# Entry
Amino acid sequence: MSKTQKNLSAAFAGESQANRKYLAFAAQADKEGFAQVAKLFRATAEAETIHAHAHFRLLKGVGSTAENLQSAIDGETYEFTKMYPEMIADAEAEGEKAAARYMGFANTAEELHANLYKRALADPSGMAAADYYVCSVCGHIHAGAPTEKCPICGAKETAYFKAQ
# Structure
């Protein structure tokens, strides 16, 4: 990988993180009654998304749907087989029970995400039309409106939101 590719990759990661961070900041500003500050954070988050997409495009990060599904499977599989198990072990060793518990939720969700992508890769045109709902606590994805509590974190079905 060239220095430019490494820089583009680092810039993509940084811009992506800035987007998510600014959206969290916007939500906090809204809670505190600072609507205009929240708007500024959301506008900046959108700008960071533009930067991230440009860097990713220059890295030739988007391929065919089949290639993108395989990339998603690989990423999710890494997360639930290596990344999160190591992070959970570290959190447990440091007595960070809340972090270990939440990372356990995320780890389980990542495995489910990988399985959803595997099914899509096996038959992308045969997927049943359905809306997807996401648990706002742990990230579990459910096809169709959920009628029971989250199987990962136990949140009520009202904790789910419809994915765009």
User: Anything to note?
Assistant: The longest helix spans residues 3-31.
